[in-house]
Design a protein that fits this description.
mainly alpha; 23 helices; about 0% strand
């Protein structure tokens, strides 16, 4: 019987398997040398990449310069040109357009003396020159006497409206102002600055001053009510006028209520008069003016609603509803529907019109549905 010899590893001859407890040493891995240390060490593969392969940096700049040489500045910008080129592109585009002549003149004077680096004296002289030009332009726009009157009136107004102005001095200045503007009120009320002087006279002047101004302006109330700035004068007349003066205002508005309510400046004056001044009969008369040209001159002040008017004049029902619908359509189209007086007109139209007519007039129906939805949401 042959016995196999055990080798030193613990296994038999011919058996290449190592023992279980035997530890096999592995070959050590070569450690990469740190960057910048040692001689003859090869650089990592990352460092060997070309600049063009990086996507950023030198390669792009070289491409941008090459593209510029070929006459393609747009392509150079897209491929990442130098930052100076981008700044030029952002700041370019020419000078901005000035919105007003005054702004253009001021720009011109600013460029004259060298801009930000100018001295204080040059800036002062430039501002004085600009003020002279502005004064000359205002004199050309208004007549010279009206311009000078406006300057003096504003100085007095600035003193009068202060709380620390003594009562005696205030009364003297008001009397002087009223005397100066007498006969020339209409020339002052259409400007944004001088209209405030007349407003102040109506508000704090006595009965005599207020009466004189009212008598001078009552003939032009409709024109003043439609002005951008003069409409505030009529509003002051509605607020501070006496009972007789307010009655004259109603007579001036009579026959033109529907027309004034379509105007975006004048409708506020009529709204204030309807809510704050008018009595029940005057309100009924103002409402009936929307029912056609006949009712602008011949009214039924005892009838409160259009429905009562239709019941009294059944033969005119079709004409009344037609004209009322036309007026309501214009008010809604022009956007003049934010007043309670207009809401009253629309309500009366909805009462007397048939459903088919309301559907046909789609704008009115949509607006009324919108109002209803808002009321229920609240």
């Amino acid at each position: 019987m042959s016995v196999k010899r055990k080798n030193s590893a613990g296994g038999e001859d011919g058996d290449v398997k190592p023992a279980k407890n035997m530890k096999v040493k592995k070959a050590p891995k070569a450690k990469p040398s740190p960057k910048g240390k040692g001689k003859g060490t090869a650089k990592p593969e990352k460092e060997n990449k070309t600049p063009a392969a990086k996507g950023k940096g030198k390669g792009k700049k070289e491409l941008a310069v090459a593209a510029k040489g070929k006459g393609k500045p747009e392509k150079a910008d897209k491929m990442g040109g130098p930052p100076d080129a981008k700044k030029k592109k952002k700041g370019g585009g020419g000078d901005s357009k000035e919105k007003t002549t005054a702004h253009k003149d001021r720009k011109k004077f600013m460029k004259k003396d060298g801009g930000a680096g100018e001295s204080g004296e040059s800036a002062k002289s430039r501002n004085q020159e600009y003020k002279k030009l502005k004064k000359q332009r205002q004199k050309e726009k208004r007549s010279e006497d009206v311009y000078e009157l406006g300057v003096e009136a504003k100085k007095a107004w600035e003193r009068v409206r202060r709380e620390d102005c003594p009562e005696e001095e205030k009364n003297e200045l008001i009397a002087k102002l009223a005397e100066d503007v007498k006969g020339r009120v209409k020339k002052l009320v259409f400007a944004h600055d001088t209209v405030r002087v007349i407003e102040c006279l109506i508000a704090i002047g006595g009965e005599g001053v207020r009466g004189a101004l009212f008598d001078e302006m009552i003939g032009d109330v409709i024109e003043l009510a439609k002005g951008k700035y003069s409409t505030f004068i009529v509003a002051k007349m509605v607020k501070y006028g006496s009972k007789e003066q307010k009655e004259k205002l109603f007579k001036a508005f009579e026959g033109r209520v529907a027309d004034l309510m379509r105007h975006k400046a004048a409708n506020t004056v009529v709204e204030n008069f309807y809510n704050d001044v008018a009595n029940a009969k005057q309100r009924n008369a103002m409402l009936q003016e929307f029912c056609g040209p006949e009712f602008r001159h011949f009214k039924e002040p005892e009838l409160r609603t259009v429905k009562q008017l239709v019941e009294k004049f059944p033969e005119k029902a079709k004409s009344i509803v037609y004209h009322l619908g036309e007026n309501v359509g214009i008010l809604v189209t022009k956007g003049c529907y934010n007043h309670s007086f207009v809401h009253t007109v629309i309500y009366n139209y909805m009462e007397v019109s048939d459903y088919e007519i309301r559907v046909w007039n789609g704008k009115i129906l949509r607006y009324v549905n919108c109002i209803t939805a808002q009321e229920f949401s609240v």
